[in-house]
């Protein structure tokens, strides 16, 4: 007994060995089938209402977009793009998933989520620290990966400036606090004016 791959390979080899005169019969059958398909498709499209045609077109575009997205993700995997950093909760789940009680994986996750919510901030701290370390790992790996992509001429895969995480300097943090305070002050003034009216 042979598997599908072996069967397809055997059929392909048999096809290659066929003389052109014998292939001609199959080629003509294919052309006839293709013509029949085109006629039926045209008849089907003709009987569709404009709304149905639009819905069909939308469905097709969604399918194509999904396929393009899948191919893009697969390409990034092949090119060795680093995995995204894990959160503290993700690390907690991966360490405790096997020991957690529950019949299904969903029940286990629900139980772990409840346990995570009940943890104090000091108990969460080791997981959050590991997550922070993982974030640093990710950033370092991404920098080297992006440099490699530039060398390969694939600048299209590099994150834009907007996507890159910003490192807060003391000045940036101070400016953010000042802006937040003035915003809160303006809101308070507006409330006061509304009360006076």
If you had to describe this structure to a student in words, what would you say it looks like?
By secondary structure, the protein is mainly α. Helices cover 77% and strands 0% of the residues. It has 7 helices and no strands. The chain has helices at 4-17, 20-46, 50-78, 88-96, 105-118, 121-152, 170-196. Helix 4 (88-96) crosses helix 5 and helix 4 packs across helix 6. It is extended and about 85 Å long.
Keywords, separated by commas or semicolons:
0% strand, 197 residues, single chain, mainly alpha, 77% helix
State the helix count: 7
- Round the Cα radius of gyration to an integer and report it: 30 Å
Query: Care to count the β-strands?
Result: 0
Low-confidence stretches: none
Content of β-strand: under 5%
Characterize the overall form: extended
Average the pLDDT over all residues and give the rounded result.
Answer: 86
Distance between the termini: 89 Å
How much helix, percentage-wise, in residues?
over 70%
Helix/strand-derived class?
Answer: mainly alpha
Give the ordered list of helices and strands: HHHHHHH
Largest sheet: none
């Amino acid at each position: 007994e042979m598997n599908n791959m072996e069967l397809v390979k055997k059929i392909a080899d048999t096809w290659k060995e066929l003389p052109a005169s014998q292939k001609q019969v199959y080629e003509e059958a294919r052309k006839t089938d293709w013509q029949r398909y085109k006629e039926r498709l045209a008849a089907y499209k003709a009987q569709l209402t404009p709304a149905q045609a639009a819905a069909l077109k939308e469905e097709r575009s969604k399918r194509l977009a999904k396929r393009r997205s899948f191919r893009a993700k697969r390409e990034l995997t092949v090119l060795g793009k680093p995995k995204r950093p894990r959160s503290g909760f993700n690390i907690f789940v991966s360490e405790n998933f096997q020991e957690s009680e529950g019949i299904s994986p969903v029940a286990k996750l629900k139980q772990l989520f409840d346990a995570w919510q009940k943890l104090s901030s000091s108990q969460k701290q080791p997981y959050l620290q590991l997550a922070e370390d993982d974030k640093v790992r990710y950033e370092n790996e991404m920098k080297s990966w992006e440099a490699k992509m530039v060398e390969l001429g694939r600048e299209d895969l590099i994150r834009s400036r907007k996507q890159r995480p910003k490192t807060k300097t003391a000045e940036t943090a101070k400016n953010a606090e000042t802006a937040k305070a003035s915003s809160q002050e303006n809101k308070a003034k507006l409330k006061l004016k509304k009360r006076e009216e």
